[in-house]
Amino acid sequence: MPRASATDPRFAEIESHRPYLVRYALAQLRDGELAEEAVQEALVAALESIDGFDKRSTLRTWLTSILRFKVIDLQRRLVADRARTQYDEATVGAEHEAWLDEMFDDTGHWRSPPQAWNDPEAALEQSRFWEVFERCLGRLSSTGGRVFFKREVLGEETDVICRDEGITQSNCWVMLHRARIALRMCLEQSWFGTEAPRGR
Questions:
Q1: What is the pLDDT of residues 138-155, one digit of tens each?
Q2: Do 129 and 35 belong to one domain?
Q3: Closest by alpha carbon to 71, among 47, 38, 41, 44?
Q4: How far apart are alpha carbons 180 and 145 in whole angstroms?
């Protein structure tokens, strides 16, 4: 479908409504980053379907109606994502204990010991290691990977992460613990193992 280009006068006209649309989205979402995301998606959709604008309403009204649906879609995604991470304390405790039983025996030792890592410090210097690390990080659940990245890479405080993600301290601890184990196993298989890739 034809869409407005940067040289099309309609492009500038649409962009001129961005400040209003951001304010509208911010009032609905109460999060600047999410508001910008919703507006960007709405503007892209508007540019792709600009030829369908029949001018029976004002351009701002038309853009706002598109944004309204984008906001609703984003809110639904957020609710669904958070619902997957909302565990009551008893469930988290039970799941955590069962998971630990699978990994460790009664004496606290690994049931299947991790492989010995050969010179991990040298591996950190290799750019391909980070490529493998990113792939391993991508295998984590969306929330687990995001929590791990915020805590271990960005260094955010746990209480800030819990507030932003809508999870409890217990949820966060379990996610981080599982993420560390999953990343270690993935790196052992994909990098530090006998068949791990080497070189830059």
A1: 888 878 888 888 888 778
A2: no
A3: 38
A4: 10
Report the alpha-carbon distance of residue 102 to residue 134 in Å, rounded. 26
Q: What are the angstrom distances between the C-alpha of 175 and each of 7, 17, 65, 87, 167?
A: 48, 41, 38, 12, 10
- Number of compact structural domains in the chain: 2
CATH of the domain at 109: 1.10.10.10
- Residue 62 lies in domain: 9-83
CATH number for the domain that contains residue 20: 1.10.1740
Range with lowest mean pLDDT among 71-75, 108-112, 145-149: 108-112
pTM beyond 0.70, yes or no? no
23 is a domain residue: yes
Assess if residue 200 is contained within a domain.
no
Of 10, 8, 60, the closest CA to residue 39 belongs to: 60
Residue closest to 18 by CA, chosen among 51, 53, 57, 46 = 46
Q: pLDDT by residue (tens digit) across 60-70?
A: 888 998 998 88
The phi and psi torsions of 168 (rounded to 5 degrees) equal -90, 170
Rounded to whole angstroms, the Cα distance separating 159 from 37 reads 25
In this structure, are 28 and 67 located in the same domain? yes
